[in-house]
Each structure stands twice: as C-alpha cells, then as structure tokens.
Amino acid sequence: MSTDNQDVAAITDHEYLTFTLGSEEYGVDILKVQEIRGYDQVTRLPGAPDFVKGAINLRGLIVPVVDMRLKFQLSNATYDDTTVMIVLSVAGRTIGIVVDGVSDVLRLEPSQVRTVPDLGSAIDRQFLTGLGVVDERMLILLDIERLMTSEEMGLVEQAIAA
Known about the structure:
Blueprint lengths: L2 H9 L3 E7 L2 E6 L3 E6 L13 E7 L2 E7 H4 L12 E7 L2 E7 L1 E7 L5 E2 L13 E7 L2 E6 L1 H5 L5 H8 L1
Parallel strand pairs: 2-11, 5-7
Antiparallel strand pairs: 1-2, 1-8, 3-6, 4-5, 6-7, 9-10, 10-11
C-alpha cells in the first residue's frame, strides 16, 4: 500500500458535511463545522484578497468570511436563497465559508475514498484528502484545516487585524 493510500485510509472514518460549489460537490470533516447560517451581508475589508468577502459579527466574535467559489476560481459568485455560510472551527479560529448550498452529512467507509489524481485544477492537491464515491456521486474531500491555515489564508488573519 502506498503512502497516499495509507493517508486516505487514515482519514476515512469520518462524517463529512457536503456542499456544492457550481456543479461540484465537496465534503469537509463534520467535526470542523460549528454551524450553518444563511448568507448575511458582510463588512468588506479594504485591501483583502478578492476571495475574502469580509467579516461578520457572530455573537460578538469577528469572523472572517471566505467565498469558496472565488477562492477556487470557479465562477462569478451569485448570491441567492440557497447560498449559505458554513462557520468552521479551524486551528483554534472561527472562519466562515460561503458556498452555493449544503447537501448532506455522509459517513464514508474506507472503500468509498480514493486517492486524488493530479487534477491540474485551481485546487492544490495538498488541500484535498481524497475523493469520496457514494453511488453515482463524487465528493471532493477538502482538508479544510490545511487550506485555512495556508500561507495564502494567513492573509485573512492579516486583513482582519488591519
């Protein structure tokens, strides 16, 4: 068994919150999800990267908000009744991500998770933990902690601090 397969096998005993971005379905570890909210207006932060929508006041806590469609360079973001914000607890921080919609909570067995091929896409493979296969569905499983603590996302923290 290769190292990649061992990594996949080690992370599969989890439940995932699934959400959509465009026509693709993604999954994040349910243990990182704090709450799901309707999309609210955010306060724009000057000088923040485009994918940082701004910040919200969540019961007294200032929470940066990242639009995942913009982060993954998928398409222009349109906000409608199905747009939601997933509030995550990542590396001791609270971060909101904007997605097109939330689908399910799924538990994946090890046999349902595959290694990530070289996608050559806007998503760096280091931020993916695998591809989940559920019947005819394919889920892109995100390592949301690695993504949100990446150097680029460190800009979020700097923008909030400014």
